[in-house]
Amino acid sequence: MKRTISTLAGAAVAALIAAQPVLAEETLAIGVSDALTGGAAVYGLPQANAVKLAASEINAAGGISVGGETYMLEVIAYDDKGNPTEATNAVRKLIDRDGVKYILGFCCSGATGAVASFIEYEDAVMLVGNAAERSITTREIPNLTRTRPPADYTGAAAGAFVAAKGHKRVAVLGALDVGFYASYVDAFEKELNKAGGEIVTREAFALKDRDMTPQLTKIRGLEADALLVVGYVEPAAFIYRQSVELGLDLPRYGFTSGSEEQFLRVATSEQMEGVWDLRPTELTLLSATENGIAYHENYAAAYGISPSPSSPYAYDQTYALKDALEAAGTVEDTAAVARALRELAVPDEVVMQYLPIDGKMFDRNGQAYTSNGAFQWRDGNWTFVQDLPSDPVAYSEFLSTLD
Amino acid sequence: MLEVRGLRAGYGAIEVLHGIDLDVAEGECVALIGANGAGKTTTLKTICGLLAPKAGTIRLRGREIGGLSGHAIVREGVTMCPEGRQVFPQMSVLKNLRMGAYARSDDGQADDLERMMDMFPILRERAHQAAGTLSGGEQEMLAIARALMARPKLCIFDEPSLGLAPKIVAEVAATLGRIREMGMTILLVEQNSLMALRLADRAYLLEAGEIVLEGTGQELQSHPDVAKAYLGH
Amino acid sequence: MIEILQQIVNGIAIGGVYVLIALGLTTVFGILGIAHFAHGSVSMFGGYLTFFLVAGQGIPLVIAIPVALTAGVVLGMAIELLAYRPVRKASHINAFIVALGLTMMVEGLNLEFFGHEQVVIPTSFDRVFNIGGVTLPELRLYVILAAALLIAAMTIFVERTKTGQAIRAVAENRDAAILMGVNVRTIPLVVFAMSTALGVAAGIMVGALFAIAPGIGEGLVIKGFAVLILGGLGSIPGAIVGGIVLGITESLAAGFVSSAYKDVIAFLVMIFVLLFRPQGLLGKAS
């Protein structure tokens, strides 16, 4: 594991400090456990970068003031490879060795679930980002919050949208051995059934599969009227490419959250034309708010590459943590900070467009909700077309009934 | 043709041959007889380069070949028809014969192939069959023909009659006789000493890694020790 | 009916890739008795190299491919000389360990030079042919043709040339081959050069058709060994038949049984074949 300390805005911070009268200045270390290498790094590395970016911005703006003291953030990021064992080790190391109390990142459900299973008993607060598995927020763990809505929240909205398009026979091709993709499809199916439609087949692929022609050929023979693709960007890109090569003439819907660059590495823009992505309204330039546009610029300037659409989940965690620390008035009492997070209004600086529950960013499960959007590939870009019919209040109620 | 002097060889630390002198003159058929474990096969392996000599010299037409690797010795003109036939079982008879001429680059190979198939009509019949499907006697004929395909200066036969039916043994003996008549220089190793001594111009008796007797085939056949121990009189 | 034909066509392209991998493995196994595990990673190296030349250096594909194949020949000879030759006379477990170590080393080098990101070799072949309802993308057609060409070239080389016959002879009976005058020190070099070039070709095909990423090579070499066992250890025709059979089986299994179990079904078929023919489809009973 690599230990990286953010020194990005070092110069800016130094200038700021020099200009001000000497204040009692403390450093607060915050941790990141995320996939910095390996297959999940497409999601994890941008998240770690986003936390570092937010921390440097906060430092440059004068740090966090808690009980008369000013704290500068220091980010310690460890690579958990998206793997449960590695994530457990990384978090143990952060808590036991580095003395960190606030841990961010967490792009992947397996790794996140492993840490969530013991974080309740630690003197720490865990802020989950992109991991979409529902069960992470069903146990009302008091010291855990999550910025990304669960997959089935989005799946239900997607199902209602596809049903409203008039499709009756939907073929599914997905990474169905991954829990949250399966739950997306389950919620999707429920909404589709309500409208009298059905899923005609559930075809699966494994993470390393790149040849989807057998599954697509089968689907071609089923007279489906729509295709739903759920899975990671890379296999999904091959599905879109090979569906065209097989002459599969169906409307294609997906749940992948990949950037344009990521898809174009595999498929041509022509092969992607018309594909829908039904997902939380994450960062896309065409749908971005002012915050979103600024985030995109700053991130690109700092790392020389565009941010991934889901990376703001981690950026927003950092600002939520800042506000909660300031509201709680302590950096030591993690229980107070955790309570403050649950009471928090949506911070001004966030990038994603959260739908507050009772005016609060996180519901009592610790879950935040964004709107869901229908994006379509048009001429080489993901274009925001419309909001999906999402109901965060109803979903939040439903989530509270689960355990 | 072949001149072996003071040859010592063995496996690892164990010495099997304790200094052997042996000559084969041009056009001569020389037999090497002896009991199991006397060192006959070791002698041949050393001459053919499958085993490195520990001491002594092996000269072919005056050129030292001792210690050369196996394929280089083949190129010097020594070919062995190995014990147990060792045909290439999945290759056709024809391809086995062509492999025999592997070390040659002249253009007489096609003619030689015809000659071999005239000499062994059964091989022509079975030309496209996999060698592994041939009977033991047929495989022996193939192994002999394959060895001759190399147009060797010296052709070594290692136990050509081993494991064959008596009728086939007679056939093999007749074949070797024909090859001898063709003027081929032959070194023959046989457990079937009677057959070997009948064919041979001269013969050596090997016992426990040393040459104990030497003479014409006729002389050895009538030598009382040989007769008693090896010819079963 | 169309669906079955389409699935068979789908399976042939990937089957061709399996054949190329298995041909390399089977000749190496036949000659040296080595299970050359690093073959998959070496083949991925070829794919990465081609990607680097095409996407990184802007070299046209028609030039990049021969360059990569040549690099494969050199790499193959280097592997034989530096990795396997020193343990040739040692016990088999040594070669086994060298093979495992070499796999990790090549995987590591790939990661070091080319990174952990998935790469796809860009080609401009994006036409799709439709023959009576069966669609065949241009790229797949070229992959099938190229695989067929290479398989034919290799078969001709082994069956019709002197060196090829020597390779077979060494595989069938090493001592007898020496007695025929075959230099058994140069033959393994030729075999590794040829095998690695075929592996590189397979890597390029995987890279253009699908993608190259860390771990793909391991999956490929496992499939290669499955083909080897299915077709018969050391048998060249066995590798050809076995590879095509495995590719089509996988495709049909995914299409008609379940895509979640396509690998399982392919291996079940393999076990089933071995129950009735323990020596493999075209292997010789011993």
Automatic annotation (TrEMBL), chain A:
Pfam families: Peripla_BP_6 (PF13458). Keywords: Amino-acid transport, Signal, Transport. Coiled coil: none annotated. Gene3D superfamilies: 3.40.50.2300. Belongs to the leucine-binding protein family. Residues 28-380 form the Leucine-binding protein domain. Residues 1-24 form the signal peptide. It comes from Paralimibaculum aggregatum. This is ABC transporter substrate-binding protein. The lineage of its organism: Bacteria, Pseudomonadati, Pseudomonadota, Alphaproteobacteria, Rhodobacterales. It comes from the Bacteria. The keyword Transport applies. InterPro entries: BCAA_transport, Leu-bd, Peripla_BP_I.
UniProtKB/TrEMBL annotation, chain B:
Gene3D superfamilies: P-loop containing nucleotide triphosphate hydrolases. GO terms for molecular function: ATP binding. InterPro entries: AAA+_ATPase, ABC_transporter-like_ATP-bd, BCAA_Transport_ATP-bd_LivF, P-loop_NTPase. Residues 2-233 form the ABC transporter domain. SUPFAM superfamilies: P-loop containing nucleoside triphosphate hydrolases (SSF52540). Pfam families: ABC_tran. Keywords: Amino-acid transport, ATP-binding, Nucleotide-binding, Transport. The keyword Phosphoprotein does not apply. Belongs to the ABC transporter superfamily. This is ABC transporter ATP-binding protein. It comes from Paralimibaculum aggregatum. The lineage of its organism: Bacteria, Pseudomonadati, Pseudomonadota, Alphaproteobacteria, Rhodobacterales.
TrEMBL record, chain C:
The keyword Isomerase does not apply. It comes from the Bacteria. The keyword Transcription regulation does not apply. It is a multi-pass membrane protein. Keywords: Amino-acid transport, Cell membrane, Membrane, Transmembrane, Transmembrane helix, Transport. CDD domains: TM_PBP1_LivH_like (cd06582). The chain crosses the membrane at residues 12-38, 58-83, 95-115, 139-158, 189-213, 225-248, 260-276. Its main location: membrane. It is found in: Cell membrane. Belongs to the binding-protein-dependent transport system permease family. LivHM subfamily. This is Branched-chain amino acid ABC transporter permease.
